[in-house]
Design brief:
single chain; about 220 residues; five-stranded parallel beta sheet; 9 helices
Length: about 220
Amino acid sequence: MLADQQIILDRLAEGVREMDEDLTLEASHEALDNHVDALTAINQGLVVGMNQAGSLYEQEEYFVPELLLCSDAMYTGLDILSPHIQRTSAEDKHKVVIGVVEGDTHDIGKNLVKLMLEVADFEIYDLGRDVPPADFISKVKEVGADIVCLSTLMSTTMDRMVDVIELLKKEGLREKVLVMIGGGPISQAFADRIGADAYSENAIAAVADAKRLIALKKVAV
């Protein structure tokens, strides 16, 4: 990696971590002007900064207001960089319904997963945040989704994921739809316990998991 590129990536991370929208905006334009790949700038700049902010939150140096300002800075960068991502193309796009479960309004992680899946040429139906279980089922039926992605940042709303899976079973859809889950309090053990098909630790892992599950589904058909 060129030294200049690393400097730009570090500035992107610093802009997000330090809640500095002006710095993030300036560094995003620098990335484009210096031909830094947009996806690299996002993953190794903006996302790194957001992860650093998350670590400061865990250390109780940052609190929710600081995290929100960090996310504002991150979205400033995403607005500049996202249109320049080199996207793959496929004849048949696999459909993904994604949303934050009912009771939770934290959607930073969900939005990153959505962006990465869009880049990987999945067809995304974003239900937003605080989504009732029945809304996931309705959208899965409406679009014939291959995957439903459920996110939450709060331990108090983890069981809403269970509600979605149980509704999929009740409607006879569970064998047709793959379920991926993620978020701060989520773990592989929780995914195994509730019968989800995959737990994704981050947005990049979510793309790999989605491709892996789709490939396995095709083999099984």
